[in-house]
Amino acid sequence: MSEIPRSWFDDGSRDGAAAAPGAPAGPQPEAPPERPEWFDDEAGPLVRLFAMTSGRARPTSESFDLIAVIHAEDAREDAPPVQTPEHAAILALCRVAPRSVADVASDSDLPVGVVRVLLGDLLDAGHISVGRPLAPARLPDERILRDVIDGLRAL
Predict the structure, then answer these.
(1) How many degrees, rounded to 5, is the angle at CA 131 between CA 125 and CA 133?
(2) β-pairing, 99-100 with 69-72?
(3) Which residue of 47, 93, 99, 141 shows the fewest CB atoms closer than 10 Å?
(4) Would you give the DSSP letter of residue 79?
(5) Residues 96 and 61: beta-carbon distance below 8 Å
(6) Rounded to a whole number, what is the distance in angstroms from the first to the last CA of the chain?
């Protein structure tokens, strides 16, 4: 049988001496820093994405297509206030001009999945409305579009 090095079973006590009764074995964790650690000077403290969505991965009401257009609505009297700074930022972006879901994600520097969850919250609260893209069956026929293009070229 091979010998296993004793250091693999070391409990952190010094020189093999037994630890004091009631003292935790092993290395002690570091005390939390007095000042929060920053990811970098410009970004500020690192916030996990699931913290912005309360751990949710999908919107509560509906899924949002990337090309669905988001319109900011006038706040109703019974509408709950905006919950987080991210909700407020998305609402501010959509108040300037209606934007697609992809544009909201790009302009807010948030992943599309997070933006969809936040948009679901805003839709449930009545702060936004969603313009749906046309279904392919409702689009004009390709033959008609070619005839229009040919007619324009003839001019």
Answers:
(1) 140
(2) antiparallel
(3) 141
(4) S
(5) no
(6) 94
pLDDT for residue 34: 67
Residue labelled with tokens 């403290």 = 45
How many helices and strands (H and E) does the chain possess?
5, 3
Residues facing 40 on adjacent strands: 44
Backbone angles phi, psi at 2, to 5 degrees: -85, 155
- Measure Cα distances from 87 to 19, 20, 90, 123, 136 in Å: 52, 53, 5, 11, 32
For residue range 109-145, what is the model confidence (pLDDT) as tens digits? 888 888 888 888 888 888 888 888 766 667 778 888 8
d(CA 101, CA 99): 7
